[in-house]
Amino acid sequence: MTHTLEVAQIAKTIGKGIGLNEDLIEAIALGHDIGHVPFAHNGEEVLNDILPGGFRHNENSIRVLTKIEKLGAGLNLSVEVLNGILNHSGFSSKMGKSTTLEGQVVRYSDKIAYVNHDIDDSIRAGLLVDEMLPKGAIKILGEKHGTRIDTLVKDCIYNTLNDLDRDKIYVSLSEPVATALGDLRNFMFENIYKGEILKEERQKAQFVVTQVFTYYYNNPGAMPDFYKNVVCEEGLHMGVADYISGMSDDYCLMLFNNIYVPKVVIY
Description:
This protein is mainly α. It folds into two domains: about 1-30 and about 90-195, Hypothetical protein af1432 (Orthogonal Bundle); about 200-260, no CATH class. The chain has 13 helices and no strands. Helix 6 (about 100-125) packs antiparallel against helix 8 (about 145-160), helix 7 crosses helix 9 (about 175-195) and helix 10 (about 200-220) crosses helix 12. The longest helix is centred in the middle third of the chain and has 24 residues, at about 100-125. It is globular, with a radius of gyration of 20 Å.
């Protein structure tokens, strides 16, 4: 939720500076990660390995919004909102996948938000210190969280407006700022997201999701009726995946404990 609100705030600021539809931006931003599974990308990797067709949270967001919400009726969202949500993932200087500028703004804002927030979280947790961050990127973007956000937001606005192509306009960062953000993102992937420092915690999270999935795959009758209906209509893998993907971290852990952790018995 914190990340979602940060993305919405950053995206609306950029959108206002460019002169875009802020309501469309907010709708895309608020829904962009609704398809995430417990433990975010760690859980996503588990389902991607298990499901025959793979699993991607952006595609699942569309499924949640069109087929799962309101007990299968879906929400009455526009094509533009759904397109922005579907195409918010990935990191590239060519932001042409979203058919609207608003969707492109959210795609950039997602990266701006999570990279900088995760740097702060990692420093507070003692996993990183400021001196470890790529010096070239910090020199361009700024040493502090607020300074980096300010630099990225302003650069996105001014570069998009100043680099206007009369036939086509894309939301974009200037080359040095885009490279600096990419360097920070790569640093976080190498050292935090995929690094050795949190390897054990990632394995624990994936173990929990795997075991909970396995239990409900073998015991589909234990799921709520809605997901049992999905099993009947779309198969066992899909029904269990829908149930798992709708869980929070805490709810998934609670189920894991209820299913697998022995209870103390006093004789």
